Amino acid sequence: MVDANTVGNAPMVSYGKFKLGNDSIKLEFRRQGSVYIYDASNTSAKVFYQLDRWHQYEHPERWSKDFVLEAEVFDNTPNGFSIKTEVPSGTAANDYSNFTSFVSFTNLNGVEYNINPRGTSGVNHYVWVRARSANGGTSGFSVKLDNGQTNTVPCVKGNTWTWYRYDGTSGQQITYASLTPGNHKITVTPTNSTLEIDQIIITQNSGNIQSPFASPCSATASATITPSGATTFCTGGSVTLTANSGTSYSWSNGATTQSITVSTSGNYTVTVNSGAGSATSPVTTVTVNAVTPSTITASGSTALCSGGSVSLTANTGIAYLWSTGSTAKTITATTAGSYKVTVTQSGGCTSASALTNVTVGTAPTPTISANGSTTLCTGGSVVLTASSGTAYLWSNGATTNAITVSSAGNYTVRVTQTGGCSATSAVTAVTIGTAPTPTITASGPTTFCTGGNVTLTASTGTAYLWSNGATTKAITTSSAGNYTVKVTQSGGCSATSSITTVSIGSATTPTISANGPTTFCSGGNVTLTASTGTAYLWSNGATTNAITVSSAGSYTVRVTQSGGCSATSSATTITIGSAPTPTISANGPTSFCSGGSVTLTASSGTAYLWSNGATTNSINVTTAGNYTVRVSQTGGCSATSAATTVTIGTGNAPTPTINAGGSLSFCQERKCNVNCKFRNCIPMVKRRNNSINFCNYRWKLHGEGYAIRRLFCYFIRNNSNRETIAHIHRYT
After folding, report:
1. What does the pLDDT average to over 671-691?
2. Does residue 700 have a pLDDT over 60?
3. Which of 77, 112, 78, 108 is nearest to 186 (CA)?
4. In the beta sheet, which residues pair with residue 536?
5. Selection from 40-54, 234-248, 529-543 with the highest mean pLDDT
6. Residue 707, SS3 per DSSP
7. Contact 215/163 with Cβ under 8 angstroms?
8. 88: Cβ contacts below 8 Å, ≥ 6 apart
9. Which residues are bridge partners to 725 per DSSP?
């Protein structure tokens, strides 16, 4: 949405003309649009007015909460008025670009307007009316709110449009205080028929928003001060001084509000400004009498014992009232409680004192409690504690609640409680005995291996307490640690022995190391060595640090270390392998003509070494000789095969011939007279079956315009290693 109110988007106003009947009317167009009324029925007094002229130029969402009512926009239709229009002198006919429309009264009926204040709470609204007298004489009007509050302006004079805002009786601005939201009716009634009204403004702004405006009709300025109560009071009091109604206020203490609250002495005046002028009030004197704080003086301690008393005296005044109801200056307190006095001083001011607390206590019955036995051994002590109180005095001169006693004697304590009451406790006797010197005897070594134990025995006493919590005279322990025993003897004295240390040794798990592989062939061996110790026992019975093993099995060793502790190693496994029996297989005859070959393959193993130096599983042989292979298997064992002999034939190679059993000229095509010739016979596959070799040759048939065909030819090898054709077979 384009905001037409933004600068540059649309002009604030513009002017134009339009034809209405026989009249060409010129008028002003506002940015927000307008509704115009034009009445030309009386050609000598045409009426033109704008129903929404009172709107602001801004978009409605920016309108203020004030009401600007054009006089012609009324909310009822009473008789006795008419709407008129005037334009400045010299204005062309039907030019309404600058006009004033107003209500002219012909009788004293009022014109009504409805308003509904915007907002959610009551706000003050102030009234402005633009009016004049048609004949220049004196006129006036009244403004009524909701048929209730009525304000009168009796001094509308002259035929110049003037703004009126002051009530003729009070001289103050016409105000609707705390006008609440809701529908309200404003009625304007003329005092005579010469009154003319142009606009009415109902605004939340109390300032001078229009000019020129008329002064109050006949009121005179005045200023008075009304106190809310007595102007003489005591310190801490106050009084509110309120000035009569005006438009502004100036107090002698600098305040500018209508009311001020005063709590200090002084002479106060106020200057009140109103539409009728300003005036200063007479002096109002405020007197504040000082108050002296009340106090209570006690004749002695306020902490009493039963039957005691204390005198409480108030500071000087002219009257007294104690919290007990007494009106004397001094009272005697014999009971516990909080005492207070209110003292009246000259000038009638009173003050209450702070509380004075009186306590009454009863004599205590002190007791002494000990934190242990009061029969001590030499060097021992016991804490003696008195029962609760506020002060203590022990028979040894101590003044604390508790004392620590290490000497024999009879002990008492005097305890003072709240109220000063005190009493002495009964005697508590403390005696001193002789402590033993306990010892521990071990049944054997106190250092042993895991699984061992030792018995520790305390010296004689009546009770025992070991450091591990045991209470027997002797204990058997298999755990390392520092052991002590507290031995109590007759008389209750006890002492703790010196420490006896028990140590538990533990053997380190031994290891076995081999000087070579633990997997070898029959006839081999390996040396197994145990980790360091003082003695050895192998699983085969050997007792040396190292053993040489040539037999398969699992070997362990138990090693004894310093301190006598021993442990067994994990097992080391010895594996004995067996040698293989290698063989050689040939993929064909081991006798062949020069240029032939045969593949020799060794039996399975993990490594190979042929007599010709090859290290593969198979070798291709083209030369005569005796061939062997050494085969290694898992575990490293190896053996050599028997020899395989390869021989190469001598002499000239045969010259094969082909004898055809019939014509060699034949064709598969329809033209059988074509001369076909055999060329390029190439051996493809050879197969051996007893003494007959079946050789598949690929023959190329040559002939003009014919495709290649395939033939099978079979050969018979004779004893001279020569081959002759036995049969030719066509293959398509």
Report:
1. 36
2. no
3. 112
4. 559
5. 529-543
6. coil
7. no
8. 98
9. 715
Query: Cα(431)–Cα(409) distance, rounded to whole angstroms?
Result: 7
Q: Where are the beta strands (DSSP E) in 478-578?
A: 481-483, 485-488, 494-496, 500-505, 512-514, 519-521, 526-530, 535-538, 546-549, 553-555, 557-560, 566-568, 572-577
Q: How far is C-alpha 214 from the chain's CA centre?
A: 67
pLDDT at 3 over 60: no
Sheet holding 677-689, edge to edge: 677-689, 692-702, 710-717, 723-731
SS (H, E, C) 227-238: ECCCCEEECCCC
Q: What are the structure tokens assigned to 501, written together? A: 């240390």
Q: What phi and psi, each to the nearest 5 degrees, are found at residue 181?
A: -60, 145
Strands (E), 92-174: 95-96, 100-105, 111-115, 123-133, 138-145, 149-157, 162-164
- DSSP 8-state assignment for residue 222: -
Mean pLDDT score, 362-384:
87
The one-letter amino acid code at 241 reads L
Asked if 456 and 441 count as a contact pair (C-beta separation under 8 A), the reply is yes
* Mean of per-residue pLDDT scores for the chain: 81
Across the range 295-320, mean pLDDT stands at: 89
pLDDT of residue 674: 30
Q: Tell me which residue has tokens 């002990």.
A: 411
Q: Look at residue 484 and give its three-state secondary structure.
A: coil
What pLDDT does 52 receive?
Answer: 64
Q: What's the start-to-end Cα distance of the chain, in Å?
A: 92
b/e for 175-199, b at 16 or more Cβ within 10 A?
bbeebeeeebebbbbbbbbbbbbbb
Residues ≥6 apart with Cβ < 8 Å to 243: 223, 224, 225, 226, 249, 251, 258, 259, 270, 272, 281
Instruction: Give the integer Cα–Cα distance in Å for 484 and 487.
Output: 10
- Residue that the structure tokens 């105000």 belong to: 175
Task: Give the pLDDT mean for 583-601.
Answer: 91
Residue 687: pLDDT band with limits 50, 70, 90:
very low
Q: List, for residues 703-722, the tens digit of each pLDDT value.
A: 433 333 334 443 434 444 44
67 vs 118: CA distance, rounded Å: 10
- The pLDDT value recorded for residue 78 is 61
State phi, psi for 60 to the nearest 5 degrees.
Answer: -55, -30
- Using only C-alpha atoms, the chain has a radius of gyration, in whole angstroms, of 70
Report how far residue 47's alpha carbon sits from residue 141's, in angstroms, rounded to the nearest whole number: 24
- Whether 489 shows a pLDDT value over 50: the answer reads yes
> With contact defined as beta carbons under 8 Å apart, do 358 and 331 qualify?
no
E strand intervals along 362-472: 368-370, 375-377, 382-386, 391-394, 402-405, 409-411, 413-416, 422-424, 428-433, 440-442, 447-449, 454-458, 463-466
Full strand arrangement of the beta sheet holding 266-268: 232-234, 284-289, 266-268
Confidence of residue 509 (pLDDT cuts 50, 70, 90): confident
Q: Which two tokens stand for residue 133?
A: 């007298």
pLDDT score at 692: 35
Task: Check: CB of residue 304 under 8 Å from CB of residue 420.
Answer: yes
Residue 499 — very low, low, confident or very high, per pLDDT cuts 50/70/90? very high
Q: Of 101-105, 253-257, 490-494, 509-513, which gets the smallest average pLDDT?
A: 490-494
Measured CA angle at 534 (ends 533, 535), to 5 deg: 95
* DSSP for 1-63, written as a single string: ---TTSTTTS-SEEEEEEEETTEEEEEEEETT---EEEE-SSTTS-EEEETTTTS-SS-GGG-
- Residue 124 sits at the vertex; the CA angle it makes with 201 and 175, to the nearest 5 degrees, is 60
CA separation, residue 528 to residues 553, 556, 637, 664, 700 (Å) = 12, 10, 21, 85, 77
